[in-house]
Amino acid sequence: MASGGARGPVPGATHLATKVELTVSCENLMDMDIFSKSDPLCALYINTSGSHWYEFGRTEMILNCLNPKFAKKFVMDYYFEMVQRLKFCVYDIDNNTYDLSDDDFLGELECTLGQIVSNRQMTRPLMLTNKTPAGHGTITVCAEEITDTRAANLEVSARNLDKKYFWWSDPFLEFYKQTEARWQLAYRTEVVKNNLNPIWRPFRISLRALCGGDVDKVIKVDCYDHHVNGSHALIGSFKASLAEMQMGTHMSPAEFECINPKKVKKKNYKNSGVICIKQCQIIKEFTFLDYIMGGCQINFTIAIDFTGSNGDPSSPQSLHYINPEGYNEYLTAIWAVGNVIQDYDSNKMFPVFGFGAQIPPSWQVSHEFPINFNPANPFCAGIEGVVQAYQRCLPQLKLWGPTNFAPIINHVACFARQALQQRMASQYFVLLIITDGVITDMDRTRTAIVEASRLPMSIIIVGVGGADFSAMEFLDSDDKLLCSPRGDVASRDIVQFVPFRDFQGNSVALAQSVLAELPDQVASFFNSYKLRPPNAPSVSALS
C-alpha cells in the first residue's frame, strides 16, 4: 500500500503538482515485546478535509527491530499552494489482522508535506496521542522530487558466501544510495533460505532511489544472513557504481568481492563471497499518466455479493436494504469507486455481476450472473445505470450462498489474458468485489489471484458490514507475495482490501484509499512487460 497514487485537490481549482517520494526510518523505538523486539510498521494518514484522517499507505513490517529502515516508499503529489496535513503512525505489529487498533502504538509524527519538502530530510521525536514523547523514539522522513523516470532492471546472484550458522546462511541484499548525510536504504531483496550460492528474483529499482539518476555515483550493497530475531549478521559489503554494474552479462557477470570489515585483518582472508550482477539494464519507465494519456483504457467490472449472510433485503437490518434516502453500503461503495474509475473509460459501459444467489427462472445458485439478467450484454451505462440495475435485480433474487470469488476473478482474467496477447498497453482491467463475509473457495481464489497477477488486472475488495475480514486481509498481501496452494508465487500484489466501515460514510476518503495502489499497479505491470503507451512518441523522439 505504500506506493500510493496521487489524490487530487479541490475540483475546479488550478493546481500544479510535483510528485515526491517519501522515505521513512526510525530510531530508538519503544520495545513492546517481552521475549523479542518490536515488529514496526509505519502507516501514513493524510487529511485534506478538516477533521477526517484517511490511510494513504503502509510500509512493510520489519521483524524484531527498534531502528527500522523501511524499504517501501510513499509517493504522492505535492501542491505548493495547499496545506497537506500528514500523520506518520508507527505500530508494533502483534497479529495478522488489517486493523492497526489491535497493535501496540509506538508513536506518531504530525506535520505538513510542505515542512518535509522544505527540509528535504526531517528528524523529529515520536509523540504519543497525549502529546508526550514516545520514549526516545525518533522518526526521519526524507523527500525527493520525482523527475527522472528511469529504472534499473537487475538480476543478481552470489557464490561461495560465508557460512554463518553451522553449514549454511539465509542471505539477502540491501542496496543503499549515498546522500549528503548518510546511506539511505533503496531496496531490500527477499531472503534465500539455506543457500551459499543464492539467486535472487529479478527486481527493478528507480535510478532516482538508487543513485539520484547519476550512474557514476557509488552505491553500497550489504549482504546479510537473515535471523528471525532481527539481529541479522553481516556477511560482507561492496561499493560500486551503476555504470560498473552495467558491465555484466548472463555469460560474463560483473563480479564484486563481498568484504566483511571484521575479517580483513585475518591472515589469508580474501573475501566472504562474490556478488554477481548478471544484468543491470537501464530503461525508461512510463508513468500511469503516460499510459492513460497515451490511450490506455481502464476496464471496470463490478461484482456484488448476494449471499444469504447479507440478510433479507426487505429488512432494515440487511446490508442490501435500501434506506429511504436510497442508499446502503453496497451502493455507497459503487458510487465512491465507480465515480473515479469511470473517468478513465471512454464509453463508460460497465459489466456488473452478482454471485451467491439463486436466480430465475431455474433458481440455481450462480456465482457469475449479470445483474441485468442479459448474458449477451451485461453492461450498464455509467454508474447511474449500475445503480438502477442493482435496484431492479434485488427483488428478483433469492440470497443464498456460498461466497465464491474464483469464478468472477477468472471471468475478468479471461478478457485480461486476451488483451495481453495483443502485446499492447491499451487495456487494463479492474475488478471491484463488494462483499460481506468469509470466502468459501479460498484455495481456488488464491490460485485465481496468482494467475491474474501475471495479467493487466487489479482486484479491489470492499468489505461491507461487520464480519470477520481476516481472509480478505490475507489476500491483500503487502508484506509477502500471495502463494497458491500448490506453491506458485504471485508475480505482484494486485489485491487492495478496505473495510467500508473504517471510513464512517466518507465516500471520498473511501475512494482515495481503495484506489491508492492502482496507478502504480498499472504502470509497473506494463513497464515490466516493456509495453509502451499506444500513442507514445518513438524511441528516437525520447532519446
Kindly provide the radius of gyration, computed on alpha-carbon positions and rounded to a whole number of angstroms: 25 Å
Assembly state: single chain
CATH architecture term of the largest domain: 3-Layer(aba) Sandwich
Relative helix content: 10-25%
CATH class of the largest domain: Alpha Beta
Name the structural class: alpha+beta
Report low-confidence residues grouped into runs of 5 or more.
1-15, 538-543
The CATH superfamily title of the largest domain: von Willebrand factor, type A domain
How many separate helices?
12
**What is the mean predicted local confidence, pLDDT?**
89
Shape by Cα distribution: globular
Number of individual domains: 3
Quick one: how many beta strands? 26
Layout of helices and strands, plus pairs?
Blueprint: E1 17-27, E2 40-47, E3 54-58, E4 74-79, E5 85-92, E6 104-112, H1 113-119, E7 121-127, E8 133-145, E9 150-159, E10 171-178, E11 183-188, E12 203-206, H2 207-211, E13 218-225, E14 233-241, H3 242-245, E15 254-257, E16 274-284, H4 288-293, E17 297-305, H5 329-341, E18 349-355, E19 357-359, E20 364-366, E21 369-370, E22 379-381, H6 382-393, E23 398-399, H7 406-421, E24 427-435, H8 442-452, E25 457-463, H9 470-475, E26 495-499, H10 507-514, H11 518-528, H12 539-542
Parallel strand pairs: 17-18, 17-24, 24-25, 25-26
Antiparallel strand pairs: 1-4, 1-8, 2-3, 2-5, 5-6, 7-8, 9-12, 9-16, 10-11, 10-13, 13-14, 15-16, 18-21, 18-22, 19-20, 19-23
Helix pairs in contact: 5-6, 5-10, 7-8
